[in-house]
Each structure stands twice: as C-alpha cells, then as structure tokens.
Amino acid sequence: AITANGMVMPCDAVLFQGNCVVNESMLTGESIPVTKTSLPSSGEEAARLYNMEEHKRHTLFCGTHVIQTRYYAGELVKAVVVRTGFSTEKGQLVRSILYPKPTDFKLYRDAYLFLLCLVGVAGVGFIYTIVLSIMSKVPAKTIIIESLDIITITVPPALPAAMTAGIVYAQRRLKRAGIFCISPQRINMCGQLNLVCFDKTGTLTEDGLDLWGIQRTKDGSFSPPESDVAAERLVNTTFVACMATCHSLTKIDGELSGDPLDLKMFIATGWILEEPTEEETALHNLLMPTVVRPPKHSMAEANQNQQLDIQSCEIGIVRQFPFSSALQRMSVVVRRLGEKHMEAILKGAPEVVAGICKPDTVPQSFSETLESYTRQGFRVIALAHRQLESKLSWHKVQNLSRDLMETNMDFLGLIIMQNKIKPETAGVLCELQQANIRTLMVTGDNMLTAISVARDCGMVRPHEKVIIADAAPPKDSHPASITWRYTDIPQTVCTPSQLDTFSCFVLTVSLLQSAEVTVEEGAHHFAVSGKAFAVITEHFPQLLQKLTLRATVFARMAPDQKTQLVEILQGIDYIVGMCGDGANDCGALKRAHSGISLSELEASVASPFTSSTSNISCVPNLIREGRAALITSFCVFKFMALYSIIQYISVILLYWVKTVLIFILPYLFFLCC
Question: Membrane topology per the record (predicted)?
Fold first, then answer.
C-alpha cells in the first residue's frame, strides 16, 4: 500500500487502485509532477498483458517520490510490485553508471593498437636482452630483472593515468560552469562532435507557453479568433469549460502544479480548482472528483446577462486519461453539478483530434487555418467533446476503455499558444554552424511549427527551401508511397519505382513541381514527420540514410523514434550529441555519444551530462572542454609513446656496449612523472 503522506518508491510497482501524483525528476530530469492512474479493470486495455512501456502511466518507478495520493474511503492506494533491485528502472540506470556501455572512440582504438605494437617491440627487446645477457654470462637474477625492465620501459604503465589528466581537469571546469558529468570518458568524445540534435519545446524555445487566443467552431465553420478567454460572455460556453477541465493539474501545498501548458490554459480561463479533503472522501465512501468552477464574480456578472444557473457551472472531473506521447492526446470524463449524464472531453494534436471527430463538425477550412497558425510558429491544440449515455454510472465510467470513449466526438475549436524562442538559441546555433557542426531539430510538435521555429532560430536560413517528406503505408492494393512538397508548393507523390536513387528523387522534386524550381546542393533542407519516418524505415530503407544526411527537421517524433534516429546517424559515422529537456528524450540522451539534459536538478541521471542552466549555451562550452581534453589526451599519448621508444632504444644500446645499469630507481621516477 502507498502511504497517504507520500513516500519514495523502493521498487517498481503498478497501481491497481487509486491515483498518485509523482515527482519523477530523479529518472527523467523533468521537475513537473505527473499523475499516475490505476490499471483499467475491464475493456480492451485490461485484456492486454502488462507491459512497462505501454502502461508507463500506471507504473510507479523505483526512486521516484510519491507526493500525493487519492484514495477510497477505508481503503489505501494499492500497487503490485513488478520489479526490484537492479531490475527496476532506477537499478538499470545505476547499473549503466557502474558498468557504462563501452565507448567506441577512434583515439582509444588507435591507442590500444599502438600499445599492441609496443608489446611486440618489447617482446623483441625481451628476447634480445636474455640472449645478450646469457652470452655475457650475467647472473640469472640480473637477467630476469633487466629483461622485465625492458617491458616496463617499452609499454609505459602510467599511460592510462596520464591520459585521464585532461579529462579530470575538464570535468572540474565543467562542474564550475554548471555542467555535471556521470561518464567522464565521454568528455573526450564531445571534442569530436560533428552533429547535435535539439529538442524544441523547453530546449530551443521557452518552457512556458503564452495563450495567444482561441478559435471556436459554430455550425461546422470557424468563428473569428478571440483573445480574452475569461470574458463574461464565454463563462458558460462548452469551449471554456473544456479548457478548465481537460488537464492533469493538482494542488500541492495549496499551489496548482502540473504540466506548464495545462497550467497556462487553466489560469487563462480564470476558473478555480478545488480538490476534495480526506473528510469529504470518507463521508461519501467514494473517490471524490476534483471540482472546477468559475470565480463567483464572473458567475454573478454572467447571471445578470444570461440568467445562468450557478450550480451548472460547477464541473467534477470523474476520470482522467493522462496525456500519451504515442497517442498525442489526453481526455477526461466530467459531470456538471445537477446533470444526469456525463461528458467526454478530448485535447490533443489537431490532426489527431480531427480524425476522431465527426466529419460534419470539422470545418472545411481546418487544414488551411491550422497551417496559417503553424507557419507563424504558434503551437496549436484542438478540443473535442461529446455527451455520454445517461445510463453510464460512476462505476461504469471507471471501467470504460479509452478507445470506446475517444470516438465520435464533436470538434469544438483550436487553442493557439505562443512559444517564444530563448534569447541564447540563435547565437549558439550560429556558433555551431560556424564550427561546421550540423544541427538538427527533433521534436514531437507540429511539422509547420517546427519549421517556423527552425527558420526563426537560424537552423534554416531565410533563402533556403524546406522540402517536407511525408509517407503513407500500404493500403488495400496500393503500395506505400512518399509525398514530397515544398512548404509553399503543391505536393508530388512518388512511388517506389521512382525512388531507386537519391539523384532521381532530387530530379523528381525539381521537375514535377508546378513551379520552376532548382534544387541546389546545400540550398535546401528536408523535414520528416514521425509517421513518414516509420514508413520510410519499413518500406524505403534504401532512402533512409540518404534522407537523414539532408534532413534538418524531424517533427511529431515519438520517444523511441528519437532513439532510432540517433542510432541511424551513428551508423553513418556521425559523432552525435543530443540536447533535450530530459522528459521525452531520455532514450536518445542515453544513446547519443554525448547526451546533455537541460534540467534544474543536478540529480538527473538520464544522460551523461546534465546542465543546471536551462538554455543551450552549455553545448559550445561542453564541446570546447571536450576538445581541450582531447588535445591534452592526444599530446600526453604522443609524449608517453615517444618517451618510451627513446628510452627503449637507449637501454638496448647500453646493453649492447655492455654498460651495467646499476640504478633502476630513476626509471621508476621517470614513469611516475
């Protein structure tokens, strides 16, 4: 059982009763608390076997801090232990620190080969010394000492320690700069980085999003945009009610806490969130819902104009389906006070939400409107809603599957959020480009928003064109196809037969477009969506490496796809760095040669490097220190190798002229120095 006043989890466990608010910063570096819900007890999801990745939102991980619990009267929040010790998520991270994956680094490979050659040379000197000493009738004890001395002279035992000197000092300087390292050997690898992948939100752009406005729908078409969400005339609208309820916010020590996007949306509505006390939960013998309502002065003003029933504005959040990166959406089931039926509310990526809604409720200008906002760099979220059957009881809703609930929705409109670029971003990217270090954006956000941000921060220059690569999987008798189009030119569909070579592809793009465009080397960039990446990986593997060589923007990428992209880039001989906020980038951060997590928490062990500063200015600093450490290691290696060879030749010549080496201690002194 999980204690009511919180605890640090000693194992991995899956919730099967009650809800928890958990701080997972120790694992992910993400300081925002997340809500964990219990496993569904019925429906299609309940029939599937438990899987750690699929059911992550129901799993409490070892080392994470349970801040708050929501439970039934007379019953504790219960969880089943699934993993302990080194098998847990924390245990695997600790193991990766204790036994890091061997770094395949050219300097180290060459150093081992050179040492192997020195061993061969030492073997020759060893035999030579023995033969020469026997011929000179030297005592056996002296022969053994002098022969072994040749080996220690030729293969310097102090070489590994000497090569780590540069790393040690670089690590100290990095710590003073606010960059913490758990894998010192990777510092040298930072000196050879020639490609850096960046997450967008929280890395290139600010964490916080400002609400720019909303655009509701009416009778299947968009209404004009509105900026004041808290206006009196909007108090009792379904749209604002959905904004105030579709979130995973909770109160911790009297303060609202949760996802920054959810927090901004809720604050913009001006509504109030109230959570039930332990006494209320015990009195009703149920898990009491969180209640949201408008402020009293807004309801009073609205009453004067609309005869609004104050009670009807109070809405209880009966059940939450947390945000899923794979599904790109979240949803809640709510009930208005005094109403018999419940309602389902959905929030997520506009393309995903529109696909779930009834076609007649989605405006015909949906694509054009969405594109107009995303081109300007806005982050757009869609809302949908539907009324559930009145026969659904509270208990039935708790067992309702997500797939059954998130279907046949009514499209409500768009929420437009403004995400500003961090002041340091453009300067750092320009500095990296001047150093001939390639930069990529790998994000889960909308494609056109990502392209707009890439242009604004200088990753794509104003005169350079962007070609969007989209792909469709095989359907019925139609084979898989790829759609290539410029961001401002109609699309062109290419079949597999047209894509035998990359040069053919470039020719296809330039000739088949409606406008006369020439595609020049270095004057264009590719942008790939997560869906297209999956299709190309499976059906067009011959294009994958060539495309990643020229692509700059990867949008709508799932966490596992980010990791896969890093592996592909490493496969084509890139030394890859990954910079992210540590939330959805953990796999890629750990897989890259140099993973840099931007987090306020030094304790994050999700990546080899963790920066206490929340911007990408740490990347050039890390590369500089890496290059300094690499040069130091290389120079020390050359000095030690040359010193050993010179000393080896000197000793062999002395043995040849039969000079007796009386004092061996000076050799040991030289080696220690």
Answer: Multi-pass membrane protein
